């Protein structure tokens, strides 16, 4: 399969996964805010941090009010990671490889684009928001589900899954990082600490699975353990890394990359993440993110189209 | 209540559905009946369904507006254009004959130029041709086929005669819209396809693939066929994707390909370089290979011409095929058919006056206000003068240009293009239309699409059918009138 095509498949997948994650984050934050008493809520600011756009946001915005932050997250033209921009990027990339993507998948991506664009007022309104985001999440599941069921599971598919898994691991690490750092621990908020950890789990659709796996009590150490180390929960960082490794095994020229993934896996497994407190957790997640970026670089180096050599 | 065809006014034009006496033509009977049975509400709904299908299927074309690339939904009218099967069979034979002669002509021009030596085709014309590629002289493409894919534009005049208006031999586009129009119609009016005996169109991608595969320089089971696109910014990008997808081929850009030291073409895959046998190229000649043509082309593949001339890769259409695709050469097609095939042309050319002939030139200048004057090698209507719609000053300017360089000019009578009923709101109204069928030639076998792409001017009275300028399209039905 063409290098350019594999690279594009990889990115389409990342963009769609990113859109889904942002949609889920907004939805859950929306719910959390309703549960917390006035004055305790962290508002929308953490979401801007999770997707890593604080600086850009502040260039054009003076505060983190609901309407401003939401517009920025949902449809902000100046936000590369807004849902709309992610979908636009996915659609534009998919357009350049329309020939390899099953027709139904292209139509779903195309329809999702029109839905996100044409119904943005729903997303911005309090009442319409839940349904709007739900539809976006469902649509991304439909895209990945249809892909899984209708495209040849060949080399191209490896890159689709690889993009999906690396984006997912990255998003999980971001959510954990920011949510744990901004967790309000003042005395008056103490009774709500639980709700906030639950909300963290919910933003990764992890709540139900956490309970099945870790028991009914939601505690900080268990949550961190589950989110980072679970070998069965599909959004845990370790789980994603295992899949990345498995994906690369049948591919040729993948020895280096597999070695690198293995190193990351071993390091993460051996880390006692339950014991990480405050800034240690933040620093450690930072390292994980750098390693994930390293995996991307190695993948690009091994398989993607190089820029044309400059002829002298 | 429904469309009343008696109230439809053909305005003195030849209409494709309704004859001069206001009666529905035989091949359109069932279609007309069906549309009469629909209420205004149903028509409106059907239009909405069609628009939604087009939007969701992402059937689009690209236009540029003030530097921005805009992806526009394909404009589509839900009343199909019908042609009787018998008439169509005659057109098919005529098109095959025409393309056969054109291929012989191109091959002759790049070899012995017998047609010039025998005094049929003027040498001076060839020297002036902007589409003649000296790089192609002496090259022998497989089966001597240069124009593997030809899109000929057909128009019907007031008397009902079908004429060939031009032959597109470079990178003709539109076939994907022909196919998509049909799939949209199937979504909109599934019941119609049960009632009317309509010949299917969807075999084209497999015919195209077979033709391409037959050009492979390496005889083997599965030749590597690719579609070469200039990229997502090209106005026909949708079609490039569509055809690659339908044929199950790779869609490649210039940067995906490389010509190695063995003068073979390879594509860059994640497992390394992989040999390419046939390239269906949708890039113009001049951008194909910066070594042979425009040196600063970013779209092409350095060394491609080298690989092609050595026979290591097939290029479809062959570079240089465009030499037979200009308005002066067009005027000689009937002579070509006679010269190479010994037959009379079965499809009419629009009568064309060649200004290089002093007598004809005189006639053109005297009747300039009644004729359409065309420069030989411009496309897209540039330099065109429409006599009846021009000012005295414009006429004088064109006359001066003709006198300065008579070889570069031809003239044709203005044609009363036929009309097809097209929905304006919920009422049908006549709009001018043309038809572009596609002809595939492998040298062993020639195939014509069933019908073709009907392009229609959506604006009343307009003759412009081009999609970038407000034109739309319709599904085209070849109807078997005798089928029960």
Structural class of chain A: mainly alpha
Average pLDDT rating of chain A:
90
Count of individual beta strands of chain B: 23
> pLDDT below 50 for ≥5 consecutive residues: which ranges of chain A?
none
User: How much beta of chain B, percentage-wise?
Assistant: 15-25%
Shape of chain A: globular
SSE string of chain A, helices as H and strands as E: HHHHHHHHHHHHHHH
Head-to-tail CA distance between termini of chain A? 30 Å
State the assembly state of the protein chains.
heterodimer
Strand count, sense and barrel status of the largest sheet of chain A are: none
Structural class of chain B: alpha+beta
Question: If you average the pLDDT of chain B, what whole number results?
Answer: 91
Form type of chain B: globular
Q: In what range is the share of β-strand residues of chain A?
A: under 5%
| Count of separate DSSP helical elements of chain A | 15
- Major protein interface: A-B, 26 and 26 residues
Strand sequence of the main sheet of chain B, in spatial order? 3-23-22-19-18
How many helical stretches of chain B? 15
Q: Indicate how many domains the architecture of chain A comprises.
A: 1
Question: In whole angstroms, how far apart are the ends of chain B?
Answer: 28 Å
InterPro entries (chain A): ATP-dep_Glu-Cys_Ligase-2, DUF403
Protein name (chain A): Alpha-E domain-containing protein
Protein name (chain B): Circularly permuted type 2 ATP-grasp protein
InterPro entries (chain B): ATP-dep_Glu-Cys_Ligase-2, CP_ATPgrasp_2, UCP005522
